Amino acid sequence: MSRHFQAVFGREEDLLGAVEEFRADGFEIEDAYTPYAVHGLDEAAGVRRTRLGWVCAVLGLGGAALMMGFQQWVSVVDWPLNVGGKPFASTPAFVPVMFEVGVLAAGLGSVVAFFLISRLYPGKRAFPHLDGVTDDCFAVVLRAADQSFDGSRAEEISQLHGATDWKLIDPPAIPRRRPAVAMRWLK
Is residue 65, in this structure, part of any structural domain at all? Predict the structure, then answer.
């Protein structure tokens, strides 16, 4: 079971300074909790830029290309119809549907990719580090799993940056969920 060190701050400047110093001292930052988006926190915590935009672009272009290919195949190869003297491969007529399917593929695919990347799946239980922390205060959580974690140095950095509370915590044992009523009678 992994242990965690958490420090709570009253101002975003204190949190940013502490996160930068924790990172400079080699502490592993697990997460930071804030009531609103704090500019510069991602860079201070060492969070990489997401590639979700590229996933969205590839899925959107792929969906649009698939729809264009499908429409071309249907109207030229499989079921060619002469509608008002237009050519069989009337590309301008295919653009609205191609655009809409591209947007649909990009949107749905990005949501699925986000859930997979974030490991958010049905039935997952989150470990709540602090209750109500995002109401009016800021917090940083450090991973303290190995023997090289220096708790006294973490406390010193927390005090230096004006932390209102800090402590070393163990994640609670998560009890198994009781099966739903429909699942009980299947046993």
Answer: yes
Give the Cα separation of 138 and 12 in Å (integer): 7
For residue 4, what are the β-bridge partners?
Answer: 143, 169
Q: How many domains does the chain have?
A: 1
- 18-23 long-range contacts (CB < 8 A, ≥24 apart) are 18/140, 18/157, 18/158, 18/160, 18/161, 18/163, 19/44, 19/45, 19/140, 20/44, 21/157, 21/160, 21/161, 22/140, 22/142, 22/154, 22/157
Give a yes or no: residue 155 inside a domain.
no
- Category of 162 on φ-ψ map: left (φ > 0), alpha (ψ -120 to 50) or beta: left
| Domain residue limits at 65 | 52-118
Task: Say what the pTM is.
Answer: 0.65
Whether the CB-CB separation of 168 and 12 falls below 8 Å is answered with no
Query: Is residue 80 included in any domain, yes or no?
Result: yes
At 100, the amino acid letter reads E
Tell me if 37 is assigned to some domain.
no
Over residues 80-139, the pLDDT tens digits come to 888 778 788 888 889 999 999 999 999 999 999 988 888 787 777 766 556 667 678 899
